[in-house]
Structure formats: C-alpha cells, structure tokens
C-alpha cells in the first residue's frame, strides 16, 4: 500500500483561481480587498514568506501593501502604525510578520490589531470565537490543513486525531478545528510520556514539531492520515518535513509532502480571510 499524496500546491492553485473570480466580482462593485503586511528587519525567511504573500495577492486581485521597517523599530512606533491601519477603511487585513525583534512584545502587537482585521487569526478574541464555535478568522495554517483533508472527502468525525506540537500558531488551533469537526483530539508535546502509544493509535497525525524526520513509517498505524507541517532545511540545502516521507507513505492512506504540502495552503487561507473581511466590512456577509 502506498499513500495518496495530498498536494497543497494543487489545491491552493485551484482555490486561488476561484478567489480571483470572486475578487473580480467584488471589484466590479467597487470593493477592493486590501491587505497590509508589516515586515520589520532583514530576516531572509520572513522576506521569503512576504514575497509569497505578495505574489498570491497579485494573482487573486487583493490590493497588497508592504510596509518595511528597520530592525531598530520600537514597540511604540509599531503600535502607532497599527492604530493608523486599524482606522484605515481601505485596509481589510493587517498582518505583522513574525518573529519580531527582541525589543517588541509579540503578544502586545497581536492584541493591538483590530479583531475585525485580524486575518492571521491570532488575536485572543479570534481564538476565543473559534473555541466557542462562532464565526471568525481561523489561523491560516490550521484552516488550510482542514481544507486539504476535506478536499479528499476524508471524514474527520469520530476519528482519533493526534497533534504533535502545541504552538499557538499551529498545534493548539488545529486541534480545536479538528474538535469542531467532531474528531477526538489528543495533544502530544515534549513532556508527553509514552508518546509512541498515542502516535500508534492515531487515525490522523498532525506533525508540527520542527525536527527533520522526527517520525517515520514504523511509528504510524496502517492507513493513518499524515499531515506534515514541518519545514526543515537539511545539510544538503533541501527542504524536508518532520516526517520521513518515503517510509511513512508506505503505511499511510494519505500524506502531505514537504515542500508543496501545507505551506501553499497557509498563504491561500490568508487570501480567503482578507476577502472575507472585505465582504463583512461591506455588508456582504
């Protein structure tokens, strides 16, 4: 048995084509979805992510503005900028690219963004709405993961989903979204005892630990669905996931690759949230 590979890159392109049509329709009504991305410093990975977001925005027709600030930017300066953007009608989504320099408190910045423009889905109000099943902007990577499984008509109801990792960006929210789909969710992390037992019992494995080839085919149950969120650069310069793809795909029923897996869906869900914000602001939702 060899797993069916879920290519997030293909699904992302299909969704972006649909979004492009939708944005054309909105523009014909005079509604132009606007996203402002704030990038502080010269971090190469952050710059790469931002380029990907700009490329996606251009493709679907979202009006994307990039504000680049020096590494020395103070917290007060950034808060002042966010306040301006919160009050700017043409801006429907605000994204401050993480990580931030040491002198800036990420939590303070995330909480300063208006929940109505929180297209990253990180604001405590957005998280609270998600936890209680209310309409909100879902964090982009977890939301993309759910869409990938739904695209293959994978039923999540009643399945045992094991989430490896408990970050606020991926681990915690993806577990919550799985719970909303009526899966039974177990979180595993660095302090979990007998982790192998949980992994071996999982119908769905979401792996987000940030360690190359943390998991291989020997660990997983026959027919498990394996979603690899990790992106690790190894010695030869290539990118690989948290899962040893070649061995895991021999036992899994579905698996995501790295690259071309979860990554492209993250940016696509950011576009979705920005378009949704523009529609809500204009009374279309």
From TrEMBL:
Pathway: One-carbon metabolism; tetrahydrofolate interconversion. NCBIfam families: PRK10792.1. Homodimer. Gene3D superfamilies: Leucine Dehydrogenase, chain A, domain 1, NAD(P)-binding Rossmann-like Domain. Residues 139-281 form the Tetrahydrofolate dehydrogenase/cyclohydrolase NAD(P)-binding domain. Pfam families: THF_DHG_CYH, THF_DHG_CYH_C. NADP(+) binds at residues 165-167, 231. InterPro entries: Aminoacid_DH-like_N_sf, NAD(P)-bd_dom_sf, THF_DH/CycHdrlase, THF_DH/CycHdrlase_cat_dom, THF_DH/CycHdrlase_CS, THF_DH/CycHdrlase_NAD-bd_dom. Belongs to the tetrahydrofolate dehydrogenase/cyclohydrolase family. This is Bifunctional protein FolD. Its EC number is 1.5.1.5, 3.5.4.9. One of its GO terms (molecular function) is methenyltetrahydrofolate cyclohydrolase activity. It catalyses: (6R)-5,10-methylene-5,6,7,8-tetrahydrofolate + NADP(+) = (6R)-5,10-methenyltetrahydrofolate + NADPH; (6R)-5,10-methenyltetrahydrofolate + H2O = (6R)-10-formyltetrahydrofolate + H(+). GO terms for cellular component: cytosol. GO terms for biological process: L-histidine biosynthetic process; methionine biosynthetic process; purine nucleotide biosynthetic process; tetrahydrofolate interconversion. Residues 6-120 form the Tetrahydrofolate dehydrogenase/cyclohydrolase catalytic domain. It comes from the Bacteria. The gene is folD. SUPFAM superfamilies: Aminoacid dehydrogenase-like, N-terminal domain (SSF53223), NAD(P)-binding Rossmann-fold domains (SSF51735). Keywords: Amino-acid biosynthesis, Histidine biosynthesis, Hydrolase, Methionine biosynthesis, Multifunctional enzyme, NADP, One-carbon metabolism, Oxidoreductase, Purine biosynthesis.
């Amino acid at each position: 048995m060899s797993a069916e590979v879920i290519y997030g890159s293909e699904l992302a392109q299909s969704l972006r084509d649909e979004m492009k049509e939708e944005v054309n329709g909105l523009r014909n009504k005079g509604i132009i979805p606007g996203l402002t991305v704030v990038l502080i410093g010269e971090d190469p990975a952050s710059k790469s992510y931002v380029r990907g977001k700009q490329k996606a925005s251009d493709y679907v027709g979202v009006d994307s503005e990039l504000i680049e600030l020096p590494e020395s930017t103070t917290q007060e300066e950034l808060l002042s900028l966010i306040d301006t953007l919160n009050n700017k009608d043409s801006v429907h989504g605000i994204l401050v690219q993480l990580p931030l320099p040491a002198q800036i408190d990420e939590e303070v910045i995330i909480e300063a963004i208006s929940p109505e423009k929180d297209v990253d889905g990180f604001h405590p109000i957005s998280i609270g709405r998600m936890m209680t099943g209310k309409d909100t902007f879902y964090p982009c990577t977890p939301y993309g993961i759910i869409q990938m499984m739904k695209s293959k008509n994978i039923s999540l109801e009643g399945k045992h989903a094991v989430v490896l990792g408990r970050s606020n960006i991926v681990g915690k929210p993806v577990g919550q979204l799985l719970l909303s789909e009526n899966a039974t969710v177990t979180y595993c992390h660095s302090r979990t005892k007998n982790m192998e037992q949980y992994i071996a019992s999982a119908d769905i494995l979401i792996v987000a630990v940030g360690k190359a080839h943390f998991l291989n085919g020997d660990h997983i149950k026959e027919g498990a669905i394996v979603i690899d969120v990790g992106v690790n650069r190894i010695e030869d310069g290539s990118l690989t996931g948290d899962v040893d793809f070649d061995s895991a795909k021999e036992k899994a029923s579905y698996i995501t690759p790295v690259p071309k897996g979860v990554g492209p869906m993250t940016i696509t869900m950011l576009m979705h949230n920005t378009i949704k914000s523009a529609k809500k602001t204009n009374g279309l939702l």
